[in-house]
Amino acid sequence: MDLLELFRESEALLEGHFLLSSGKHSQKYVQCAKLMQYPDKARKVVAEVVEKVKDLDIDVIVGPAMGGIRAAYELGSQLNIKTIFTERVDNIMTLRRGFEIKEGDKILIMEDVVTTGKSSMETAKVLEDLGGNVIGIGCLVDRKVSQIDLPIYSAVELFFETYDKENCPECAKGTEAIKPGSRKM
Ligand SMILES: [Zn+2]
C-alpha cells in the first residue's frame, strides 16, 4: 500500500508554495494532524512503525507535545505499551503531570515529523537526565535531513527540497508563498 496516498487523501501532504517556520521556501508541506484526524488512516500509517519496532524491548513510549502526542498514543495503543508525553513549559521541554521515568527504562520517542531532530534530541536529553535509556525515535514522517545518532523508525520517508527566497523556483514564477497555519490548512 502506498502510505503517502493516505497523506494526500487527507490533505496532510500539500503541494504549492510554502514559507516554512525555518524561513525557507518549499513546494511541499506535510501536516500530520490532518492525517491523524482519521482513525483508519492513522492506524494504517502507525502500523508501519509497529512493524519496525515490535521486536524491540520498550518500557515506555514518549510523545513530545503537540505533534508527538497523537502519534505516540496510537503507537502505544497498537503495541499495548505505556505511553506518556513531554511538553514545553516556557519553551523548555518538560515531563509533568506526575509522569515518571524509572532508572533504566527503555524509551522509544514517537514524533509526527522528524525534520532537524532538534525537538527529539531535546526530549531525549530530558528523559536521559531522569535516568531513562532512549533507544530510538519513531515517527510518521522522516524528512531525511536530521543528523540524529539514534535509530529512526519511520512510517514514510519524505525528502523535499527547501530553498532560500532568492533561489526558490516558485518565487521565480511570481506566486506568493503561503505560511502554513496562517489560514485553515
Ligand atoms: Zn518561494
Describe the structure.
- With 185 residues, this protein is an alpha/beta fold.
- It has one domain: 3-Layer(aba) Sandwich (Rossmann fold), CATH 3.40.50.
- It has six helices and nine strands.
- The chain has helices at 3-9, 32-35, 39-53, 67-79, 118-129, 169-173, and strands at 13-19, 25-30, 60-64, 83-89, 92-94, 106-114, 133-142, 152-157, 162-163.
- It has a six-stranded mixed beta sheet, sandwiched between helices. It has a three-stranded antiparallel beta sheet with strand order 1-2-9.
- Helix 3 (39-53) packs across helix 4 (67-79).
- The structure holds zinc ion.
- Zinc ion is lined by residues 17, 25, 165, 168, 170-171, 177.
Instruction: Classify the fold: give the CATH topology.
Output: Rossmann fold
Bound molecules: zinc ion
Mean pLDDT: 94
Low-confidence stretches: none
Fraction of helical residues? 25-40%
Number of helices: 6
As a whole number of angstroms, the C-alpha radius of gyration is 17 Å
Domain module count: 1
Q: Which H/E pattern describes the elements?
A: HEEHHEHEEEHEEEH
- Tell me what the CATH architecture is: 3-Layer(aba) Sandwich
Strand content: 25-35%
Describe the sheet with the most strands: 6 strands, mixed
What class do helices, strands and sheet pairing give? alpha/beta
- Terminal CA distance reads 26 Å
**How many strands appear in the DSSP assignment?**
9
CATH class: Alpha Beta
Main sheet: strand order = 5-4-3-6-7-8
Domain Phosphoribosyltransferase: 41-147
Subunit structure: Homodimer.
Cofactor: Mg(2+)
Function: Catalyzes the transfer of a ribosyl phosphate group from 5-phosphoribose 1-diphosphate to orotate, leading to the formation of orotidine monophosphate (OMP).
